[in-house]
Design brief:
The longest helix has 56 residues, at 149-204. Helix 1 packs antiparallel against helix 6. This protein has one domain. It contains six helices and no strands. The chain is mainly alpha-helical and 208 residues long. The mean pLDDT is 87. The chain is 81% helix and 0% strand. The protein is elongated and about 85 Å long.
């Protein structure tokens, strides 16, 4: 029982620690300027995309953990990927087993690929926010108004706003990317364990 949901426990512990660090950062007031800053909608979009990716990853981790438990017990659900693989390789030859093993590998990899895609999207959204921030900053610069003190103050304010947008979105995108990519790595490791355990179960049942 101690190792039945080991993948799920590791996943939960990591995300609990990450969430605790996020809360501590908020309590220290280090992200207040992001919440009250200019164009806060951009970091919010990144957070929402991250939330979607984390939800999908959580579901896949639970799915893999449950299927891995069933395989280790020697009783995979008939409708699961492991159950279908075992049904397909029963009384099959070597070429058939190799083909079905490749298909199983592709199916298991495909169902977790979306998490990696969402993580990559976080980086791209951060870069888009960076570009938008620089556009805002440069749009407020007027070289002909450098000698006007009052207009220079406005340009500096606009420049600071643009740089804040650029840095905030880049930081949010990068941090959440690292968070989600670590989750994806744990999920990928669990997927490999599920694949190998399923093939070993088939071999042990005499279907090899």
């Amino acid at each position: 029982m101690e190792s039945r949901y080991l993948l799920l426990v590791r996943f939960a512990l990591f995300n609990l620690v990450a969430a605790s660090l996020l809360v501590a950062t908020y309590l220290q007031g280090w992200i207040d300027h992001m919440i009250s800053g200019h164009l806060v909608e951009l970091p919010l979009v990144i957070v929402l995309v991250f939330g979607f990716g984390l939800a999908v990853c959580t579901f896949r981790v639970w799915q893999n953990s449950r299927e891995l438990n069933d395989v280790e017990d020697g009783r995979p659900a008939p409708r699961s990927q492991a159950g279908r693989y075992l049904a397909n390789v029963t009384n099959g030859g070597g070429e058939s087993r190799a083909l079905h093993a490749s298909v199983l590998r592709l199916k298991l990899s495909n169902r977790i690929a979306i998490v990696r895609q969402v993580a990559n999207t976080l980086v791209f959204l951060g870069l888009i926010g960076t570009v938008i921030g620089f556009v805002i900053a440069l749009a407020g610069v007027d070289p002909q108004a450098v000698s006007d003190v009052q207009r220079v103050a406005g340009m500096v304010s606009k420049l600071i706003q643009g740089m804040a947008v650029a840095l905030n979105t880049t930081l949010v995108g990068a941090v959440l990317y690292v968070w989600l990519i670590v989750d994806h790595r744990m999920l990928a490791t669990g997927t490999v364990h599920l694949l190998t355990a399923t093939i070993e179960l088939a071999d042990g049942d005499g279907t090899a």
